[in-house]
Design goal:
The complex is a heterodimer.
Chain A: E1 5-11, H1 15-26, E2 32-38, H2 41-51, E3 55-59, H3 67-83, H4 87-93, E4 101-105, H5 110-118, E5 123-126, H6 132-165, E6 169-177, E7 183-191, H7 193-199, H8 203-206, H9 217-233, E8 237-243, E9 255-263, E10 267-274, H10 276-330, E11 334-339, E12 344-347, H11 349-355, H12 359-362, H13 373-387, E13 393-400, E14 406-417, E15 423-432, H14 434-469, H15 477-508, E16 517-520, H16 521-538, E17 542-546, E18 551-554, H17 556-572, E19 579-587, E20 590-596, H18 621-625, H19 631-641, E21 646-651, E22 655-663
Parallel strand pairs in A: 1-2, 1-3, 3-4, 4-5, 17-19
Antiparallel strand pairs in A: 6-7, 6-10, 8-9, 9-10, 11-12, 11-15, 13-14, 14-15, 16-18, 19-20, 20-22, 21-22
Chain B: E1 5-9, H1 13-27, E2 30-34, H2 37-47, E3 51-55, H3 63-72, E4 81-85, E5 103-106, H4 111-122
Parallel strand pairs in B: 1-2, 1-3, 3-4, 4-5
Classes of the chains: A alpha+beta, B alpha/beta.
Chain lengths: 669, 126
C-alpha cells in the first residue's frame, strides 16, 4: 500500500520557518508531502492556481497582506476559477472551496485566530509553540474535516438537486406544537421548484407558511389528520386528494392530487403530483366503460332477440324442409331432380323403387344406363330439344329394371328457371305405366279379337242369307239347305260368344253374385257328365268319373258350368276312342277336381296363357272346335270367386289335366 | 272362253263356303277353297287358278308369308292376288315397297258384291 501524497503550500515570509515545517512534515508516516513554498500572499495565490494544493499553511502576518485578506482573495480567486477554466477540477475536488487552511498566528492573538476560523480557516497554530505532532495533527484534522464537509456538501447538493429536478412537487413541513406537545399546525420549511409551480408561489413566499394556507377549508381537517398520523406513527402514507366543485357532486371534480408523506424529524416530507388529467381520463374511461357495458347490454338483448328470431326461423325452415322431405320421400310417384348439365342430383325412394336403381347409382349420368339402349339416343335428343322450351316434357320411356324386366315409365320434366331467367335444371316425375301399357295392349288385342270373332260369323250369315234372297239358289235345294245351316250355326256361335262375353264381363267386374247352397260333389259331377254324354258319344269318346259323396257350399250351376267347360275342352281335343276322366278328392279343407284327357297336350309356353281370354293353344281352335275362346277365362273367374285355384298340367302328345280346388266350407253357403 | 277359276284361301270354313257359293252363283266362276295356308300353297301350284283371294289372318302360315312365297315361285308368280283383310295398315308396317298384289278388299265385305269388286280389280267382265 502506497502512502497517500499531499501537496502542501506553505505561505510564509520566513524562510527559516518554512524549513522547520518542511522538516516536521517529512517525518510524518501518514502522508508523503510535496511541499510548495511561497514567501508572499501574492505568490501564495499564484501557487494555488499552479499547484492545486491539498492543504495550506498560512502565516497570518505576511508582508503584502494579512492571512484574512489572503483567504478573502483566495475565495474570490476560487469563484473566478470556478467559473472559468478550472471549473471542472474545482467542482470535482471541492464543489465549493474546500481547502483546509491552517493559520499560523503569533502568541496571544486568539481573537485573530477566531476571526480567521470564521473566514474559512480550518484550524490555527501558534507560532513558536508548534511541534511536529501538533502540525501533523492539525493538517490531518484539517484534511479530514474538509473531506467530511465536502462529502456533506456533495450529499446535500445531490439531494437538493434531485428534489429540484423532480416533476413532482415536494415540500418539507415542520410540526408546530402547543405547550402540551400536541401538534397544532405545520409550517413549510422547504418547497421544490415543482411545488412553486404547482402552488403558483415562490419558495420565499411559502416558507414559514401554515399548511392551512395551501389546503381548501373543506379538506383541511382530513389532510391535517393525515399529516399528524404520518408524524406520530412514523409510517409513510399516501392520500388521494380530490377537490370537487361543488364538494357534494361526486361526478365532477376540479382537480386531484396524489400525496405521499413520510415522517422527517418533527415534521414530514410530502410529495404530490397533479393527477387531475389522469383522474379525468380514468373517470371518462369508467364512464365510457359503463356506457359500453350498457351498450353491450342493449346489444346483447337485441342479439338475443335476433337469435331467438333466427332460431324460430330455423325451426320453421326445418319444419318446412321436413314437410317437403316427407312429401318427396313418401310421394307415391317417383320424383327426381336434374341439374342444368343433365346430371341427376336427387331421386326419391319411389323413383328408386320404380327404376330399380339406388340413389348412388342414379346420381350424375348413372340413370342413363337404365334406359333401353336402343331408345336412349332418340329419347335424349327429344328431351334436349325440349329443354330449351318453357313447357313440360312428357314421354313414356322404356327402361330396364334391376330385375331385368323391360318396363315403361312415364317421365315428365319441368324446367326450373332462376329469377334472372337462367336454367337451373329440371324437376321430374316418373311413374311405372308398364301394367297400364299391358292392360291397354291386352284391351286392344281383345277388341281386335272380339271384332274378328264377331265379324266372321256375321259375314257368313249375311252372305248366306243374302245369297238365298237373290233367288239364285231356287233351283239348288242342296246349297240352299247348306246356306241355311251355315246361317243357323254361325248365329248359334254368335249367341254363345255374346253370352260368354257378357258372362265374363259380369264375373270380372264383380257384378255376378254367387248363389251358394249345400251341394253334393257327386251330384255336380253327374250333372256335368250327363250334359255332355250325347256329344261324347257322337265323338266316340268315353267319359269316366268317380263320384265323391261330399257336401260343399257352392253355386252349383256355376260349378257345373265350369266342369262342362273343362270336360267339353277335353272332348274337343281328344281323338275318337280315347277316354276323358273326371275325379274329385278331398284334400284337407278343400275338394280338388281334375279333368284328364289323352289329347294332344298344350305347349309349355301356352300353359300360363290358356286361362286368358282368346288364348287358345292354336288360333284356329276357336273356329274348328266351335269354342268362343272364353271358356277357361270364365272358369278361372268362377273358381277364384269361390276362393279356389285352377291350373293345368300337360305333356305334349300325352294329354292335359286341368285341376281346380274349392274350399269345402264356403262362407255364405 | 272358259269360266274363270278363283282360289279362295281362308281358314274360316263356313265363311269360305258362303263366299264360294256367292262367287260361283253370282260371278259364274269356278271357286276352290283352301282353309289353310299350306293347302292354299299346294292348290295354287297345282290348280293354277286365274286369281287368288287370300285372307291375311291365318294360323299356320300367315297371309303375307304365303303371298311372298307365291310371288317367288315360277308356278304361281303371275297369278294375281287379292288380299282380304280387316286391318289394311297392319299389312306391312315397316315396308315402304308396294305389295305385289292386284288389290285389297277390306273386311267385312258384302259377299253379294264381292264378285263385282273382284271383277273390277282384275278387269273381268261378269
Amino acid at each position: 500500500m502506497t502512502t497517500p501524497q499531499l501537496t502542501l503550500l506553505i505561505v510564509d515570509d520566513s524562510l527559516s520557518d518554512q524549513e522547520i515545517y518542511s522538516r516536521y512534515l517529512q517525518q510524518d508516516a501518514a502522508y508523503e508531502y510535496e511541499i510548495v513554498q511561497a514567501e508572499s500572499g501574492q505568490q501564495g495565490l499564484l501557487r494555488c492556481q499552479q499547484s492545486l494544493p491539498d492543504v495550506i499553511l498560512l502565516d497570518f502576518m505576511l508582508l503584502d497582506m494579512t492571512g484574512l485578506e489572503f483567504l478573502q482573495q483566495l475565495q474570490q480567486q476560487f469563484q473566478q476559477q470556478f467559473q472559468q477554466q478550472f471549473q471542472q477540477q474545482f467542482q470535482q475536488r471541492w464543489g465549493k472551496l474546500h481547502l483546509p487552511v491552517i493559520m499560523l498566528t503569533g502568541q496571544g492573538s486568539e481573537a485573530i485566530a477566531v476571526e480567521a476560523m470564521k473566514s474559512g480557516a480550518s484550524d490555527y497554530l501558534v507560532k513558536g509553540k508548534t511541534t511536529p505532532e501538533t502540525l501533523r495533527l492539525a493538517i490531518r484534522q484539517g484534511i479530514e474535516k474538509t473531506q467530511l464537509s465536502q462529502q456533506l456538501d456533495r450529499s446535500e447538493r445531490r439531494f437538493r438537486t434531485s428534489l429540484e429536478n423532480m416533476l413532482d412537487s415536494c415540500a418539507i413541513y415542520r410540526s408546530v406544537r402547543d405547550e402540551q406537545g400536541k401538534i397544532i399546525d405545520f409550517v413549510v420549511e422547504y418547497v421544490n421548484t415543482a411545488a412553486c409551480l404547482s402552488n403558483r408561489m415562490t419558495a420565499t413566499e411559502q416558507i414559514g407558511q401554515s399548511l392551512s394556507r395551501f389546503i381548501p377549508d373543506n379538506y383541511y381537517e382530513n389532510i391535517f389528520q393525515f399529516c399528524c398520523q404520518v408524524v406520530n406513527t412514523g409510517r409513510s402514507q399516501r392520500y388521494e386528494l380530490i377537490l370537487r366543485h361543488p364538494p357534494t357532486d361526486l361526478t365532477q371534480f376540479s382537480s386531484a392530487f396524489d400525496l405521499c408523506a413520510s415522517q422527517l424529524e418533527d415534521g414530514f416530507v410530502v410529495s404530490w403530483r397533479d393527477i387531475t388529467d389522469r383522474k379525468r381520463t380514468e373517470m371518462a374511461l369508467q364512464q365510457a366503460n359503463e356506457e359500453l357495458e350498457q351498450r353491450i347490454g342493449d346489444r346483447t338483448l337485441e342479439l338475443r332477440q335476433v337469435n331467438q328470431q333466427l332460431q324460430q326461423e330455423l325451426r320453421e325452415r326445418q319444419r318446412v324442409e321436413a314437410e317437403f322431405r316427407v312429401l318427396s320421400e313418401a310421394a307415391p310417384v317417383g320424383i327426381f331432380r336434374i341439374d342444368a348439365q343433365g346430371g341427376c342430383t336427387y331421386v326419391n325412394p319411389r323413383a328408386q323403387e320404380i327404376c330399380g336403381y339406388t340413389f348412388e347409382e342414379a346420381m350424375g349420368n348413372g340413370w342413363h344406363r337404365f334406359i333401353q339402349p336402343d331408345d336412349f339416343q332418340p329419347v335424349l335428343a327429344r328431351w334436349l330439344a325440349f329443354t330449351t322450351s318453357q313447357s313440360v316434357f312428357i314421354e313414356d320411356i322404356r327402361y330396364i329394371h334391376r330385375d331385368r324386366t323391360l318396363r315403361v315409365g312415364r317421365a315428365a320434366t319441368a324446367p326450373i328457371w332462376s329469377d334472372s331467367g337462367v336454367l337451373m335444371g329440371h324437376v321430374g316425375t316418373i311413374e311405372d305405366v308398364t301394367e297400364r301399357y299391358e292392360i291397354e295392349q291386352r284391351k286392344r288385342e281383345f277388341l281386335s279379337v272380339v271384332s274378328h270373332e264377331l265379324k266372321t260369323p256375321l259375314a257368313s250369315i249375311r252372305g248366306a242369307l243374302g245369297l238365298l234372297s237373290t233367288g239364285r239358289l231356287d233351283n239348288d235345294p242342296e246349297t240352299t239347305q247348306e246356306m241355311l245351316d251355315i246361317a243357323k250355326e254361325d248365329t248359334e256361335r254368335l249367341v254363345r260368344l255374346v253370352n260368354d262375353l257378357l258372362d265374363l264381363e259380369r264375373l270380372e267386374s264383380g257384378q255376378l253374385t254367387l248363389t251358394k247352397a249345400r251341394c253334393n260333389v257327386a251330384t255336380l259331377m253327374r250333372r256335368s257328365v250327363e250334359g255332355l254324354q250325347l256329344l261324347a258319344e257322337a265323338a266316340q269318346l268315353l267319359i269316366c268319373y268317380e263320384p265323391l259323396d261330399l257336401e260343399i257350399g257352392v253355386d252349383g250351376d256355376r260349378i257345373v258350368q265350369t266342369l262342362i267347360n273343362l270336360l267339353g275342352n277335353a272332348l274337343k281335343f281328344s281323338s275318337p276312342g280315347s277316354q276323358v276322366n273326371l275325379k274329385a278328392d278331398r284334400l284337407g279343407d278343400v275338394v280338388q277336381f281334375q279333368v284328364q284327357d289323352q289329347g294332344r297336350g298344350i305347349p309349355p309356353d301356352k300353359l300360363n296363357l290358356v286361362f286368358e281370354r282368346f288364348q287358345q293353344a292354336e288360333l284356329s281352335d276357336a273356329q274348328q272346335q266351335g269354342g268362343t275362346g272364353l271358356g277357361l277365362a270364365i272358369s278361372r273367374n268362377i273358381v277364384e270367386l269361390h276362393g279356389g285355384q285352377i291350373w293345368v298340367e300337360s305333356r305334349l302328345g300325352e294329354g292335359s289335366t286341368f285341376y281346380f280346388t274349392l274350399p269345402i266350407n264356403q262362407a255364405g253357403a | 272362253m272358259s269360266a274363270k277359276h278363283v282360289l279362295l284361301i281362308d281358314d274360316e270354313k263356313r265363311l269360305a263356303r258362303v263366299i264360294q257359293a256367292c262367287l260361283s252363283k253370282l260371278g259364274g266362276w269356278t271357286v276352290t277353297v283352301a282353309t289353310s295356308g299350306v293347302e292354299g300353297w299346294v292348290k295354287a301350284s297345282t290348280e293354277q287358278p286365274d286369281a287368288i283371294l287370300l285372307d291375311v289372318m291365318m294360323p299356320d302360315l300367315d297371309g303375307l308369308t304365303l303371298l311372298h312365297q307365291l310371288k317367288e315361285s315360277a308356278l304361281t308368280q303371275t297369278i294375281p292376288v287379292i288380299l282380304l283383310t280387316a286391318r289394311p295398315p297392319a299389312i306391312a308396317p315397316d315396308s315402304t315397297e308396294p305389295l305385289p298384289i292386284a288389290g285389297i278388299i277390306p273386311k267385312p265385305f258384302d259377299p253379294l258384291s264381292l264378285s263385282n269388286q273382284i271383277a273390277e280389280i282384275l278387269g273381268w267382265t261378269i
